[in-house]
Write a structure and sequence with these properties.
Blueprint lengths: L1 E6 L2 E4 L4 E9 L9 E7 L6 E6 L8 E3 L7 E6 L4 E6 L8 E8 L11 E4 L3 E6 L1
Parallel strand pairs: 2-11
Antiparallel strand pairs: 1-3, 3-8, 4-5, 4-9, 5-6, 7-8, 9-10, 9-11
């Protein structure tokens, strides 16, 4: 089992920055290094959308981004701390959403929500114009 807790959300003006963190707590026998980790976001009434991922350490820790955030957001992971990060810059009002981190099997790593088994509770990011 993997328990995920996000933090770092808040309210900022357009053009501002937010840095999100997601700490993973794993049942003995589960290794954070083996998981594909991703960030999703969901606005009210909308589907969850995958915005960034970083593959498992065993598959190269390769990042990928949705075009909506490419060039503005940076995803990273600290395997020693079992922590996932999302650095968000040049924020836009359309970035307003609840942001979730997720963990999934490395062989199905991607930006579809169906690749992920474990989810955090979410953290709200609000960007005003």
């Amino acid at each position: 089992q993997v328990h995920l807790v996000e933090s770092g959300g808040g309210s900022v003006q357009a053009g501002g920055n937010l840095n999100l963190s997601c700490v993973a707590s794993l049942t003995p026998g589960y290794n954070y290094r083996n998981y594909c980790m991703a960030w999703f976001r969901q606005a009210p009434g909308k589907e969850r959308e995958g915005i960034a991922l970083i593959s498992s350490e065993t598959t190269g820790s390769i990042p990928d981004y949705d075009n909506s955030v490419k060039g503005r957001f940076i995803v990273s992971r600290d395997n020693a701390k079992s922590t996932l990060y999302l650095q968000m810059s040049a924020l836009k009002p359309e970035d307003t959403a609840v942001y979730y981190c997720a963990a999934g099997a490395p062989r199905v790593c991607g930006l579809s929500q169906y690749h992920y088994k474990y989810w955090g509770q979410g953290t709200q990011a609000t960007v005003s114009s």
